[in-house]
Amino acid sequence: MYRRDPSIYSYRYQGFGMASEQKNTPAARSGASRVMAVLDALASADPAVFPDGMSVADVARVLGREKSVVSRQLKSLLETGMVARRPSMGYELSWRLFALAVRAGDQRLTTLAAPLLLRLAETVRERTYLSVLSDGEVLTVLSEGSRRSIEAVNWVGRTIPAHRSSSGMALLMDYDDEHILDLVRRGEGGSEREAKAFLAHVQTARRRGYTIADRSFDPELVGIGAPVRDFTGRIKAAVNISGPAFRIEPHIQSLAGHLLATTRVLQSSLGSDVRPGAGPGEL
User: Fold this and answer.
1) Mean pLDDT on 66-79
2) pLDDT value for 97
3) Residues 6+ apart with CB under 8 A from 110
4) How would you class 21 by CB atoms within 10 Å of its CB: exposed for 0-12, middle for 13-18, buried for 19 or more?
5) Comparing 90-99, 191-200, 233-242, which segment has the lowest mean pLDDT?
6) Smallest Cα–Cα separation from 227: which of 175, 272, 177?
7) How far apart are CA 271 and CA 279, in angstroms?
8) Which domains does the chain have, with CATH numbers?
9) What is the pTM of this model?
């Protein structure tokens, strides 16, 4: 799906920290899980469906809980600054939560990638993304827009099944074939046929060096992805370009060239002290 960029971000915070004096008891762990479920519900809210944030009733319905229970949980999260309320009284994740999430993530990766992602978006004039693998799904951690009126959606903080994106293919390129098949089978809509088709795409991408998700996630969208490796050679993240098929398809090879140049610079920077955003000629 693509649309006019609404500049609406949603973020998923992983690892909600409980008070230090709270013991690691089953009850405490259960309580933390319930709190995380509330945060996940807010993070996954579609802005088109909940333009004014989610009400207590909305969250309760999504989680299948009593409104009184959800109301208490949201009140506690509001008091600690983990969620915020809009003037409409709808709940949403707070900027404080996002700040904590950023600090919890790989700051070096995101710091180095940010200017490169921006430059790539300006060069190819399509939306660019930096993604990582999280529990078998693709989590987008950074994105830069194309400044065009029609472009791919900003997916920062959201997850999608790995077999539904070019980033997912790139992140799984080093996994053994059986692991990939099993991951797709267990995923959303992962039939045996889809698992084998996805594996074939990954195998082709291994030889080519980059991935292509040709209308596989959205019939009007095409994505091109490439892995980012750390100094050990391990795939750490993926960068991809995504946009309307009518703009991407005629220029896939050219776009892939820009994409691979970006990942090479990022990989070199991860293994050195090169400043963020240094071009190929500045390494």
Assistant:
1) 93
2) 81
3) 102, 130, 141, 142
4) exposed
5) 90-99
6) 175
7) 15
8) 10-102 (1.10.10.10), 105-282 (3.30.450.40)
9) 0.61
Maximum average pLDDT range among 39-43, 187-191, 212-216, 229-233:
39-43
Residue 4 CB burial class (10 angstroms; 0-12, 13-18, ≥19): exposed
> pLDDT tens-digit profile of 79-97?
998 999 988 889 998 877 8
Is it the case that residue 219 has pLDDT exceeding 90? Answer: no
pLDDT value for 154: 58
In this prediction, residues 30-51 reach a mean pLDDT of 87
**Crossing angle of helices 67-79 and 56-63, rounded to 10°:** 120
DSSP string, the chain: -EES----------SPPPPTTS---HHHHHHHHHHHHHHHHHHT--TTT-TT-B-HHHHHHHHT--HHHHHHHHHHHHHTTSEEE-TT--EEE-HHHHHHHHHHS-HHHHHHHHHHHHHHHHHH-SEEEEEEEETTEEEEEEEE----SSEEPP-TT-EEEGGGSHHHHHHTTTS-HHHHHHHHHHSTT--HHHHHHHHHHHHHHHHHSSEEEESSS-TTEEEEEEEEE-TTS-EEEEEEEEEEHHHHGGGHHHHHHHHHHHHHHHHHHHTS-PPTT--GGG-
Taking the CA atoms of 242, 10, 102 and 134 in sequence, report the sign of the dihedral they define. Answer: negative
C-alpha 8: how far from chain center:
14
Say whether pLDDT at 58 is over 90: yes
Cβ distance 244 to 220 under 8 Å? yes
